[in-house]
Amino acid sequence: MKPEEEVTQDQPETSPQGREKPFRKIALLLLLLLLGVSALLWAKIFSSEKPGRPDSPPPLVRAPVQANPVVDFDPFLIPLAEKSRYAFISLSFSLELPNGQSEKELKEKMSELRGFLYDRLKEDFQKAEGIPLFQSVKDGIDRVIRLKLPGLQVKEIYIREFLAL
Hints:
By secondary structure, this protein is α+β, with helices and mostly antiparallel strands. It has 2 domains: 18-52; 70-164, 2-Layer Sandwich (Tetrahydropterin Synthase, Chain A). The chain contains 5 helices and 4 strands. Helix 4 (110-127) packs across helix 5 (134-148). The longest helix is centred in the first third of the chain and has 34 residues, at 16-49. It is rod-shaped and about 110 Å long. It starts with a helix and ends with a strand. The relative contact order is 0.13. The mean pLDDT is 80.
């Protein structure tokens, strides 16, 4: 026997059914791949339409909360009494107005109100022995604003700086 004949005899003969099996496997894999991709796309489309679970309550719609306006005053440098250990008080504060009430009126009369505030706070600080109390300063500012602008309501007075120099 020739060596070439042995090689051909060792190789199994391929039948027509044997050739069709790899094509069937490839076709089956392509079909499964196509089904998987379409299932993913379908799930993605329908999950984006319903953000919450069906048993969850509808999401709450939050109304925007409008903050009360805060009007800042430039810093004051107010002299203290001669008997005091310190010479000046540097005072900076802001006023919070309820619901935007009279903000325009306050800004229009800011310079006039500022001069009146300075004079009254200077008188109060001259009367006080040493450094005035924090709450008395707030009360003095509130009193001056109620005297000068009687229709204006102040929700809160914020003292940003209170330094004795």
